[in-house]
Amino acid sequence: MKITKKIIGVLGCVLMFAVGGLQGKSLTIPAQAADVTLKNPRIVPDAGMKAGQKVTWDCIWFGSYPQAEVIPSGVEYTALDASLRQDGDVLVSDSVYAALQSASGWDANNDITLNGAKYRRMKEGDASYTDTGSNSSYYQWSSSTDYHYFKYEPIKWRVLHTDGNRALLQSDVVLDGQRYHTVYEDVTWETSTVRRWLNGYGSGSNKQSVDYSQKNFIGSAFTISEQAAIVSSSLENTDNIEYGTGGGRDTTDKVFLLSESDVWNTGKAESYGFVKSKDTYDEARRRKSSTWAKAMGTWSYTSIEYVGNSWWWLRSPGIGSLGADVHSGGRVYDFGDYISENSSGICPALNLNLLSSNLYAYAGTVCSDGTNVEIPKQTNPEIPEIKFPITPGFPENPSVGSELTDKSKKAVYKVTGKDTAEYSKISNKKAASVKIPDKVTLNGKAYKVTSVGKGAFQNYKNLKSVVVGKNVTAIGAKAFSGCKSLKKITIKSTKLKKVGKNAFKGIHAKAVIKAPKAKLKAYKKLLKKKGQGKKVRITKN
Q: What angle do CA 24, 329, 236 make, to 5 degrees?
Protein backbone atom coordinates (compact mmCIF):
# COMPACT_ATOMS: atom_id res chain seq x y z
CA MET A 1 0.00 0.00 0.00
CA LYS A 2 1.37 3.41 -0.95
CA ILE A 3 1.48 5.78 2.03
CA THR A 4 0.80 9.40 1.03
CA LYS A 5 0.72 12.08 3.71
CA LYS A 6 -0.99 15.48 3.63
CA ILE A 7 1.63 18.03 4.65
CA ILE A 8 2.46 21.68 4.91
CA GLY A 9 4.83 21.99 2.01
CA VAL A 10 5.64 23.47 -1.37
CA LEU A 11 5.35 22.57 -5.00
CA GLY A 12 7.91 20.04 -6.18
CA CYS A 13 9.61 22.52 -8.52
CA VAL A 14 10.34 24.85 -5.59
CA LEU A 15 11.87 21.99 -3.62
CA MET A 16 14.06 21.05 -6.56
CA PHE A 17 15.30 24.60 -6.94
CA ALA A 18 15.97 24.92 -3.22
CA VAL A 19 17.98 21.73 -3.00
CA GLY A 20 19.91 22.33 -6.19
CA GLY A 21 20.68 26.01 -5.69
CA LEU A 22 21.35 26.37 -1.99
CA GLN A 23 24.15 23.91 -1.25
CA GLY A 24 25.16 24.04 2.42
CA LYS A 25 22.28 26.38 3.28
CA SER A 26 19.14 26.11 5.38
CA LEU A 27 15.77 27.06 3.89
CA THR A 28 12.38 27.27 5.62
CA ILE A 29 9.49 26.63 3.25
CA PRO A 30 6.29 28.72 3.45
CA ALA A 31 2.96 27.02 4.04
CA GLN A 32 1.21 25.53 1.04
CA ALA A 33 -0.64 22.25 0.68
CA ALA A 34 1.03 19.37 -1.18
CA ASP A 35 1.07 15.59 -1.26
CA VAL A 36 4.35 13.84 -0.52
CA THR A 37 5.17 10.16 -0.58
CA LEU A 38 8.17 9.25 1.57
CA LYS A 39 11.00 7.98 -0.61
CA ASN A 40 14.25 6.11 -0.11
CA PRO A 41 17.51 8.12 -0.14
CA ARG A 42 18.44 9.67 -3.48
CA ILE A 43 22.12 9.20 -4.31
CA VAL A 44 23.94 11.03 -7.10
CA PRO A 45 27.68 11.11 -7.95
CA ASP A 46 29.49 14.28 -6.87
CA ALA A 47 33.27 14.56 -7.19
CA GLY A 48 33.25 17.58 -4.90
CA MET A 49 32.21 15.46 -1.92
CA LYS A 50 34.69 13.37 0.07
CA ALA A 51 32.29 10.46 -0.27
CA GLY A 52 32.18 10.98 -4.04
CA GLN A 53 28.41 11.25 -3.84
CA LYS A 54 25.60 13.46 -2.61
CA VAL A 55 22.66 11.98 -0.71
CA THR A 56 19.22 13.46 -0.06
CA TRP A 57 16.90 11.99 2.59
CA ASP A 58 13.25 12.67 3.23
CA CYS A 59 12.60 13.65 6.85
CA ILE A 60 9.67 13.52 9.24
CA TRP A 61 8.77 14.99 12.62
CA PHE A 62 7.92 12.33 15.20
CA GLY A 63 7.99 12.60 18.99
CA SER A 64 9.74 15.33 20.98
CA TYR A 65 12.79 15.63 23.22
CA PRO A 66 14.72 18.29 25.20
CA GLN A 67 16.92 20.10 22.68
CA ALA A 68 17.24 23.92 22.87
CA GLU A 69 18.26 25.78 26.03
CA VAL A 70 16.10 28.58 27.44
CA ILE A 71 17.96 31.65 28.75
CA PRO A 72 17.03 35.22 29.79
CA SER A 73 17.96 38.21 27.67
CA GLY A 74 20.89 40.47 28.47
CA VAL A 75 23.29 37.70 29.53
CA GLU A 76 26.44 36.49 27.82
CA TYR A 77 25.98 32.87 26.82
CA THR A 78 29.20 31.04 27.65
CA ALA A 79 28.10 27.41 27.96
CA LEU A 80 28.94 26.68 24.31
CA ASP A 81 31.86 27.88 22.26
CA ALA A 82 30.68 30.25 19.51
CA SER A 83 31.88 27.84 16.82
CA LEU A 84 29.43 25.17 18.06
CA ARG A 85 26.26 27.26 18.11
CA GLN A 86 23.58 26.91 15.47
CA ASP A 87 20.37 28.83 14.88
CA GLY A 88 17.77 27.62 17.36
CA ASP A 89 20.23 26.12 19.86
CA VAL A 90 19.30 28.81 22.39
CA LEU A 91 15.84 30.30 23.00
CA VAL A 92 15.67 33.72 24.68
CA SER A 93 12.66 34.63 26.83
CA ASP A 94 12.68 36.52 30.13
CA SER A 95 9.09 35.51 30.95
CA VAL A 96 9.54 31.80 30.25
CA TYR A 97 12.89 31.66 32.05
CA ALA A 98 11.39 33.37 35.12
CA ALA A 99 8.39 31.04 35.05
CA LEU A 100 10.66 27.98 34.91
CA GLN A 101 12.77 29.26 37.81
CA SER A 102 9.72 29.79 40.04
CA ALA A 103 7.71 26.77 38.87
CA SER A 104 6.72 23.97 41.23
CA GLY A 105 5.49 20.55 40.23
CA TRP A 106 8.56 19.25 38.40
CA ASP A 107 8.21 15.47 38.04
CA ALA A 108 10.74 12.72 38.79
CA ASN A 109 12.39 13.26 35.38
CA ASN A 110 12.66 17.01 36.11
CA ASP A 111 10.02 17.71 33.44
CA ILE A 112 7.20 20.24 33.59
CA THR A 113 4.56 21.58 31.18
CA LEU A 114 3.84 25.32 31.12
CA ASN A 115 1.29 26.92 28.78
CA GLY A 116 1.21 23.80 26.63
CA ALA A 117 5.00 23.56 26.20
CA LYS A 118 7.15 20.95 27.91
CA TYR A 119 10.54 21.62 29.52
CA ARG A 120 13.29 19.74 31.35
CA ARG A 121 15.74 21.12 33.87
CA MET A 122 19.15 19.78 34.88
CA LYS A 123 22.16 20.62 37.02
CA GLU A 124 25.79 19.87 36.30
CA GLY A 125 25.59 16.72 38.43
CA ASP A 126 22.85 15.29 36.18
CA ALA A 127 25.16 15.17 33.16
CA SER A 128 26.73 11.89 32.09
CA TYR A 129 30.05 13.70 31.73
CA THR A 130 31.35 17.19 32.55
CA ASP A 131 34.65 18.75 31.55
CA THR A 132 36.72 20.38 34.27
CA GLY A 133 39.49 21.71 32.06
CA SER A 134 37.71 24.46 30.05
CA ASN A 135 37.83 22.38 26.89
CA SER A 136 35.77 24.29 24.32
CA SER A 137 34.65 21.01 22.75
CA TYR A 138 32.45 20.41 25.80
CA TYR A 139 29.53 22.24 27.38
CA GLN A 140 30.85 24.54 30.13
CA TRP A 141 29.05 24.75 33.48
CA SER A 142 29.58 27.97 35.44
CA SER A 143 27.89 26.62 38.58
CA SER A 144 27.19 23.18 39.97
CA THR A 145 24.08 24.32 41.86
CA ASP A 146 22.10 26.26 39.24
CA TYR A 147 19.49 24.61 37.05
CA HIS A 148 19.66 24.96 33.27
CA TYR A 149 16.38 24.71 31.34
CA PHE A 150 15.71 22.97 28.02
CA LYS A 151 12.62 22.97 25.82
CA TYR A 152 11.11 19.83 24.36
CA GLU A 153 11.06 20.20 20.58
CA PRO A 154 9.91 17.93 17.73
CA ILE A 155 12.44 15.25 16.79
CA LYS A 156 13.52 15.33 13.16
CA TRP A 157 14.23 11.91 11.63
CA ARG A 158 15.93 10.92 8.37
CA VAL A 159 14.17 8.21 6.36
CA LEU A 160 16.90 5.63 5.67
CA HIS A 161 14.55 3.11 4.07
CA THR A 162 10.86 2.79 3.39
CA ASP A 163 9.07 -0.31 2.18
CA GLY A 164 5.30 -0.44 2.15
CA ASN A 165 3.87 0.56 5.50
CA ARG A 166 7.13 0.90 7.41
CA ALA A 167 10.08 3.31 7.47
CA LEU A 168 13.50 2.93 9.08
CA LEU A 169 14.39 6.23 10.74
CA GLN A 170 17.52 7.67 12.34
CA SER A 171 17.57 10.97 14.23
CA ASP A 172 18.91 13.90 12.22
CA VAL A 173 21.13 15.00 15.13
CA VAL A 174 22.71 13.45 18.21
CA LEU A 175 19.93 13.73 20.80
CA ASP A 176 21.66 12.78 24.05
CA GLY A 177 24.99 12.04 25.67
CA GLN A 178 25.01 8.61 27.27
CA ARG A 179 27.63 5.97 27.96
CA TYR A 180 27.25 2.75 26.02
CA HIS A 181 27.59 0.99 29.36
CA THR A 182 27.93 2.49 32.83
CA VAL A 183 31.14 0.61 33.66
CA TYR A 184 34.02 -0.77 31.63
CA GLU A 185 33.43 -4.52 31.30
CA ASP A 186 32.65 -7.11 28.64
CA VAL A 187 29.14 -6.45 27.33
CA THR A 188 27.14 -6.84 24.15
CA TRP A 189 24.23 -4.78 22.85
CA GLU A 190 21.89 -7.24 24.61
CA THR A 191 23.41 -6.64 28.06
CA SER A 192 24.36 -2.96 27.68
CA THR A 193 22.82 -0.23 29.79
CA VAL A 194 22.28 2.02 26.74
CA ARG A 195 19.83 -0.52 25.28
CA ARG A 196 17.91 -0.51 28.56
CA TRP A 197 17.87 3.29 28.72
CA LEU A 198 16.67 3.66 25.13
CA ASN A 199 13.78 1.22 25.62
CA GLY A 200 12.85 1.77 29.27
CA TYR A 201 13.65 -1.77 30.37
CA GLY A 202 13.91 -2.76 34.03
CA SER A 203 16.93 -4.09 35.87
CA GLY A 204 16.34 -7.74 35.07
CA SER A 205 18.78 -8.40 32.26
CA ASN A 206 21.32 -5.60 31.96
CA LYS A 207 24.67 -6.47 33.45
CA GLN A 208 24.67 -3.65 36.02
CA SER A 209 21.04 -4.27 37.11
CA VAL A 210 20.09 -0.63 36.50
CA ASP A 211 16.34 0.04 36.38
CA TYR A 212 15.42 2.32 33.47
CA SER A 213 11.67 1.73 33.63
CA GLN A 214 11.04 5.28 34.88
CA LYS A 215 13.86 7.40 33.46
CA ASN A 216 14.54 6.52 29.84
CA PHE A 217 14.51 7.75 26.26
CA ILE A 218 11.38 6.11 24.87
CA GLY A 219 9.15 7.37 27.68
CA SER A 220 10.51 10.90 27.41
CA ALA A 221 10.42 11.15 23.61
CA PHE A 222 7.09 9.53 22.77
CA THR A 223 3.50 9.45 23.99
CA ILE A 224 1.81 6.10 24.60
CA SER A 225 0.16 6.32 21.16
CA GLU A 226 3.50 7.14 19.51
CA GLN A 227 5.19 4.24 21.29
CA ALA A 228 2.50 1.94 19.94
CA ALA A 229 3.31 3.10 16.39
CA ILE A 230 6.98 2.07 16.76
CA VAL A 231 7.56 -1.42 15.39
CA SER A 232 9.32 -3.98 17.56
CA SER A 233 12.33 -4.73 15.36
CA SER A 234 14.23 -8.01 15.20
CA LEU A 235 17.89 -7.00 15.34
CA GLU A 236 20.77 -9.12 14.13
CA ASN A 237 23.75 -8.39 16.38
CA THR A 238 26.61 -9.64 14.26
CA ASP A 239 30.28 -9.87 15.23
CA ASN A 240 32.69 -7.01 14.54
CA ILE A 241 33.34 -7.13 10.79
CA GLU A 242 37.12 -6.76 10.91
CA TYR A 243 38.16 -7.93 14.39
CA GLY A 244 35.60 -10.67 14.98
CA THR A 245 34.55 -9.54 18.48
CA GLY A 246 31.32 -11.32 19.38
CA GLY A 247 28.15 -9.27 18.92
CA GLY A 248 26.08 -11.37 21.31
CA ARG A 249 22.57 -12.71 20.88
CA ASP A 250 20.01 -11.16 18.56
CA THR A 251 17.41 -8.94 20.21
CA THR A 252 13.99 -7.45 19.62
CA ASP A 253 13.76 -3.73 20.45
CA LYS A 254 11.69 -0.72 19.55
CA VAL A 255 14.53 1.79 19.76
CA PHE A 256 18.11 0.90 18.88
CA LEU A 257 21.43 2.12 17.52
CA LEU A 258 22.55 1.39 13.99
CA SER A 259 25.06 -1.43 13.53
CA GLU A 260 28.33 -1.60 11.59
CA SER A 261 26.59 -3.29 8.67
CA ASP A 262 24.07 -0.45 8.56
CA VAL A 263 26.78 2.17 7.94
CA TRP A 264 29.57 0.41 5.97
CA ASN A 265 30.68 -2.71 4.07
CA THR A 266 27.24 -3.80 2.83
CA GLY A 267 24.77 -3.09 0.05
CA LYS A 268 22.27 -2.26 2.76
CA ALA A 269 24.53 0.52 4.08
CA GLU A 270 24.93 1.86 0.55
CA SER A 271 21.16 1.92 0.05
CA TYR A 272 20.83 4.03 3.21
CA GLY A 273 23.19 6.60 1.67
CA PHE A 274 26.50 5.61 3.26
CA VAL A 275 29.64 4.67 1.32
CA LYS A 276 30.95 1.13 1.57
CA SER A 277 34.39 2.08 2.94
CA LYS A 278 34.71 2.64 6.68
CA ASP A 279 37.78 4.85 6.21
CA THR A 280 36.06 7.46 4.03
CA TYR A 281 35.19 10.67 5.86
CA ASP A 282 31.65 10.31 4.60
CA GLU A 283 29.49 13.44 4.81
CA ALA A 284 26.41 11.21 5.10
CA ARG A 285 27.67 9.78 8.40
CA ARG A 286 28.34 13.17 10.01
CA ARG A 287 26.00 14.43 12.74
CA LYS A 288 25.57 17.67 14.68
CA SER A 289 24.22 17.48 18.24
CA SER A 290 21.51 19.28 20.19
CA THR A 291 22.30 21.67 23.03
CA TRP A 292 20.83 19.11 25.45
CA ALA A 293 23.17 16.42 24.14
CA LYS A 294 26.13 18.74 24.64
CA ALA A 295 24.98 19.60 28.17
CA MET A 296 24.79 15.86 28.91
CA GLY A 297 28.45 15.53 27.93
CA THR A 298 28.68 14.92 24.18
CA TRP A 299 31.98 16.09 22.67
CA SER A 300 31.90 18.37 19.60
CA TYR A 301 34.55 19.19 17.02
CA THR A 302 35.64 22.85 17.11
CA SER A 303 38.03 23.04 14.15
CA ILE A 304 36.67 24.37 10.88
CA GLU A 305 36.55 21.20 8.78
CA TYR A 306 34.12 19.30 11.02
CA VAL A 307 33.00 22.13 13.31
CA GLY A 308 30.02 21.24 15.47
CA ASN A 309 30.05 17.55 14.53
CA SER A 310 29.93 14.86 17.21
CA TRP A 311 30.89 11.21 17.51
CA TRP A 312 27.97 8.76 17.84
CA TRP A 313 27.70 5.20 19.08
CA LEU A 314 26.93 2.12 17.02
CA ARG A 315 25.47 -0.93 18.75
CA SER A 316 28.23 -3.17 17.36
CA PRO A 317 31.30 -4.12 19.41
CA GLY A 318 34.77 -2.75 18.75
CA ILE A 319 37.85 -4.76 19.58
CA GLY A 320 37.83 -6.45 22.99
CA SER A 321 35.61 -4.54 25.42
CA LEU A 322 35.39 -1.41 23.29
CA GLY A 323 32.32 -0.18 21.43
CA ALA A 324 32.27 0.84 17.76
CA ASP A 325 31.30 4.42 16.90
CA VAL A 326 31.38 6.99 14.11
CA HIS A 327 33.95 9.79 13.98
CA SER A 328 32.84 13.43 13.79
CA GLY A 329 34.22 13.51 10.23
CA GLY A 330 32.12 10.52 9.14
CA ARG A 331 34.71 7.73 9.39
CA VAL A 332 33.61 4.47 11.05
CA TYR A 333 35.80 3.84 14.10
CA ASP A 334 35.32 0.08 14.19
CA PHE A 335 38.29 -0.40 16.55
CA GLY A 336 36.08 1.32 19.10
CA ASP A 337 36.07 3.54 22.17
CA TYR A 338 35.78 2.86 25.88
CA ILE A 339 32.13 2.01 26.48
CA SER A 340 32.07 3.76 29.87
CA GLU A 341 33.19 7.09 28.37
CA ASN A 342 30.71 9.71 27.24
CA SER A 343 32.42 11.56 24.41
CA SER A 344 30.18 9.77 21.89
CA GLY A 345 26.49 10.61 21.64
CA ILE A 346 23.21 8.87 20.91
CA CYS A 347 21.65 8.90 17.41
CA PRO A 348 18.68 6.58 17.98
CA ALA A 349 16.99 4.60 15.23
CA LEU A 350 13.58 2.93 14.97
CA ASN A 351 11.08 1.45 12.55
CA LEU A 352 7.82 3.42 12.31
CA ASN A 353 4.42 2.08 11.24
CA LEU A 354 3.43 4.59 8.55
CA LEU A 355 -0.25 3.72 8.89
CA SER A 356 -0.23 5.88 12.05
CA SER A 357 -0.24 8.95 9.82
CA ASN A 358 -1.80 11.24 12.42
CA LEU A 359 1.29 10.88 14.64
CA TYR A 360 3.99 12.19 12.32
CA ALA A 361 4.45 15.04 9.85
CA TYR A 362 6.63 15.60 6.79
CA ALA A 363 9.72 17.69 7.66
CA GLY A 364 11.26 18.30 4.22
CA THR A 365 14.66 17.03 3.14
CA VAL A 366 18.26 16.94 4.35
CA CYS A 367 21.22 16.58 2.00
CA SER A 368 24.75 15.40 2.82
CA ASP A 369 26.12 18.61 1.29
CA GLY A 370 24.56 20.56 4.17
CA THR A 371 21.40 21.70 2.41
CA ASN A 372 18.37 21.66 4.72
CA VAL A 373 14.95 22.25 3.15
CA GLU A 374 12.70 22.23 6.17
CA ILE A 375 8.93 22.10 6.54
CA PRO A 376 8.51 23.44 10.09
CA LYS A 377 6.19 21.77 12.54
CA GLN A 378 4.05 24.16 14.55
CA THR A 379 5.90 25.17 17.72
CA ASN A 380 5.26 27.55 20.61
CA PRO A 381 5.62 31.07 19.12
CA GLU A 382 6.17 32.60 22.55
CA ILE A 383 9.91 31.92 22.49
CA PRO A 384 11.96 33.51 19.71
CA GLU A 385 15.16 31.91 18.48
CA ILE A 386 18.47 33.69 18.97
CA LYS A 387 20.55 33.73 15.81
CA PHE A 388 24.28 33.18 16.10
CA PRO A 389 26.34 34.62 13.25
CA ILE A 390 29.53 32.98 12.01
CA THR A 391 32.33 33.73 14.43
CA PRO A 392 34.19 36.88 13.35
CA GLY A 393 37.68 36.24 12.05
CA PHE A 394 37.00 32.84 10.49
CA PRO A 395 38.16 32.99 6.87
CA GLU A 396 35.45 32.37 4.29
CA ASN A 397 37.54 29.78 2.46
CA PRO A 398 40.02 28.32 4.96
CA SER A 399 42.76 26.22 3.42
CA VAL A 400 41.87 23.16 5.50
CA GLY A 401 43.90 20.18 4.29
CA SER A 402 46.75 22.30 2.97
CA GLU A 403 50.24 21.01 3.75
CA LEU A 404 52.72 23.58 5.05
CA THR A 405 56.38 23.05 5.94
CA ASP A 406 58.31 24.35 8.93
CA LYS A 407 61.63 24.68 7.11
CA SER A 408 63.63 25.20 10.29
CA LYS A 409 62.58 21.78 11.63
CA LYS A 410 61.94 20.12 8.25
CA ALA A 411 58.51 19.15 9.53
CA VAL A 412 55.33 19.00 7.45
CA TYR A 413 51.97 20.04 8.92
CA LYS A 414 48.41 19.78 7.64
CA VAL A 415 46.04 22.66 8.40
CA THR A 416 42.97 21.33 10.23
CA GLY A 417 41.22 24.54 11.24
CA LYS A 418 41.36 28.28 11.62
CA ASP A 419 44.29 28.11 14.01
CA THR A 420 45.01 24.38 14.37
CA ALA A 421 47.33 22.01 12.55
CA GLU A 422 48.30 18.35 12.50
CA TYR A 423 51.93 17.14 12.63
CA SER A 424 52.01 15.02 9.46
CA LYS A 425 55.67 13.97 9.05
CA ILE A 426 59.30 14.99 9.23
CA SER A 427 61.43 14.81 6.10
CA ASN A 428 64.48 13.48 7.97
CA LYS A 429 63.66 9.79 8.36
CA LYS A 430 66.93 9.27 10.22
CA ALA A 431 65.96 11.64 13.04
CA ALA A 432 66.76 10.24 16.48
CA SER A 433 64.51 12.58 18.44
CA VAL A 434 61.40 14.62 17.64
CA LYS A 435 59.51 17.24 19.60
CA ILE A 436 55.92 17.86 18.54
CA PRO A 437 55.52 21.51 19.53
CA ASP A 438 52.65 23.20 21.34
CA LYS A 439 52.44 25.76 18.55
CA VAL A 440 54.07 26.35 15.20
CA THR A 441 54.27 29.38 12.91
CA LEU A 442 53.63 28.55 9.27
CA ASN A 443 53.65 31.17 6.52
CA GLY A 444 53.53 33.88 9.16
CA LYS A 445 50.47 32.46 10.97
CA ALA A 446 50.50 30.73 14.38
CA TYR A 447 48.79 27.35 14.74
CA LYS A 448 48.17 25.11 17.74
CA VAL A 449 49.41 21.61 17.03
CA THR A 450 46.44 19.48 18.08
CA SER A 451 47.12 16.10 16.48
CA VAL A 452 49.72 13.67 15.21
CA GLY A 453 48.79 12.34 11.77
CA LYS A 454 48.06 8.79 10.72
CA GLY A 455 51.39 7.01 10.07
CA ALA A 456 53.32 10.23 10.77
CA PHE A 457 56.47 8.39 11.91
CA GLN A 458 55.74 4.88 10.66
CA ASN A 459 58.93 2.81 10.25
CA TYR A 460 61.30 5.58 11.38
CA LYS A 461 63.88 3.01 12.49
CA ASN A 462 66.29 5.51 14.12
CA LEU A 463 63.76 7.37 16.20
CA LYS A 464 64.57 6.96 19.90
CA SER A 465 62.60 9.67 21.73
CA VAL A 466 59.47 11.74 21.15
CA VAL A 467 57.88 14.59 23.08
CA VAL A 468 54.17 15.17 22.43
CA GLY A 469 53.14 18.80 22.95
CA LYS A 470 50.53 20.07 25.41
CA ASN A 471 47.84 20.87 22.81
CA VAL A 472 47.65 17.43 21.20
CA THR A 473 44.20 15.84 21.48
CA ALA A 474 44.60 12.96 19.01
CA ILE A 475 47.29 10.56 17.82
CA GLY A 476 46.51 8.85 14.52
CA ALA A 477 46.58 5.16 13.67
CA LYS A 478 50.08 3.72 13.19
CA ALA A 479 51.59 7.11 14.08
CA PHE A 480 54.70 5.46 15.60
CA SER A 481 54.25 1.95 14.22
CA GLY A 482 57.51 0.20 13.35
CA CYS A 483 59.73 2.62 15.30
CA LYS A 484 61.74 -0.25 16.74
CA SER A 485 64.28 2.01 18.49
CA LEU A 486 61.68 4.25 20.14
CA LYS A 487 62.25 3.86 23.88
CA LYS A 488 61.01 7.12 25.35
CA ILE A 489 57.69 8.89 24.67
CA THR A 490 56.86 11.90 26.81
CA ILE A 491 53.28 13.15 26.62
CA LYS A 492 52.92 16.74 27.84
CA SER A 493 49.28 17.09 26.81
CA THR A 494 46.45 16.72 29.32
CA LYS A 495 43.89 16.92 26.52
CA LEU A 496 44.55 13.65 24.71
CA LYS A 497 41.22 12.00 23.79
CA LYS A 498 41.85 9.73 20.82
CA VAL A 499 44.65 7.27 20.01
CA GLY A 500 44.35 5.32 16.77
CA LYS A 501 44.75 1.63 16.08
CA ASN A 502 48.32 0.28 16.36
CA ALA A 503 49.67 3.75 17.11
CA PHE A 504 52.62 2.19 18.99
CA LYS A 505 52.91 -1.21 17.32
CA GLY A 506 56.50 -2.35 16.99
CA ILE A 507 58.14 0.27 19.24
CA HIS A 508 61.00 -0.87 21.49
CA ALA A 509 59.95 -3.78 23.69
CA LYS A 510 61.06 -1.95 26.85
CA ALA A 511 59.85 1.52 25.91
CA VAL A 512 58.54 3.92 28.54
CA ILE A 513 55.59 6.22 27.90
CA LYS A 514 55.52 9.13 30.35
CA ALA A 515 52.23 10.87 31.04
CA PRO A 516 51.13 13.83 33.20
CA LYS A 517 50.56 12.74 36.78
CA ALA A 518 46.95 13.95 36.79
CA LYS A 519 46.19 11.92 33.66
CA LEU A 520 48.16 8.77 34.40
CA LYS A 521 45.17 6.56 35.20
CA ALA A 522 43.10 7.83 32.27
CA TYR A 523 45.97 7.53 29.80
CA LYS A 524 46.78 3.99 30.89
CA LYS A 525 43.23 3.12 29.85
CA LEU A 526 43.36 5.23 26.68
CA LEU A 527 46.68 3.73 25.54
CA LYS A 528 45.74 0.16 26.31
CA LYS A 529 46.08 -2.23 23.35
CA LYS A 530 47.47 0.33 20.92
CA GLY A 531 49.92 -2.20 19.54
CA GLN A 532 52.78 -1.86 22.04
CA GLY A 533 54.34 -4.91 23.68
CA LYS A 534 53.40 -6.12 27.14
CA LYS A 535 56.67 -4.89 28.67
CA VAL A 536 56.10 -1.27 27.62
CA ARG A 537 55.52 0.81 30.76
CA ILE A 538 53.31 3.88 31.22
CA THR A 539 54.55 6.08 34.06
CA LYS A 540 54.09 9.65 35.30
CA ASN A 541 56.29 12.51 34.12
A: 110
* Residue 426 C-alpha from the chain's centroid: 32
pLDDT digit string (tens) for 368-415?
A: 999 999 998 765 445 554 444 433 333 333 357 777 777 777 888 888
Which sign, positive or negative, has the C-alpha torsion 218, 222, 224, 225? negative
- What is the SS3 assignment for 269? helix
**Cβ atoms of residues 348 and 255 within 8 Å:** yes
> In terms of pTM, does the model score above 0.70?
no
Cα–Cα nearest to 376, from 27, 18, 115: 27
Kindly report, residue by residue over 342-357, the tens digit of the pLDDT: 689 999 999 999 998 8
Q: Rounded to 10 degrees, what is the CA torsion of 441, 442, 447, 453?
A: -120
Cα distances (Å, whole numbers) of residue 321 to 272, 335, 338, 341? 28, 10, 7, 12
Contact 276, 264 (CB under 8 A): yes
Which domains are seen in the chain, by residue range?
4-374 (no CATH), 403-540 (3.80.10.10)
The C-alpha angle 416, 418, 423, rounded to 5 degrees, equals 35
> Are β-strands 465-468 and 439-442 bridged in parallel, bridged antiparallel, or unpaired?
unpaired
HEC secondary structure over 450-518:
EEECCCCCCCCCCCCEEEECCCCCEECCCCCCCCCCCCEEEECCCCCCEECCCCCCCCCCCCEEEECHH
Q: Cα–Cα distance between 324 and 246 in angstroms, integer?
A: 12
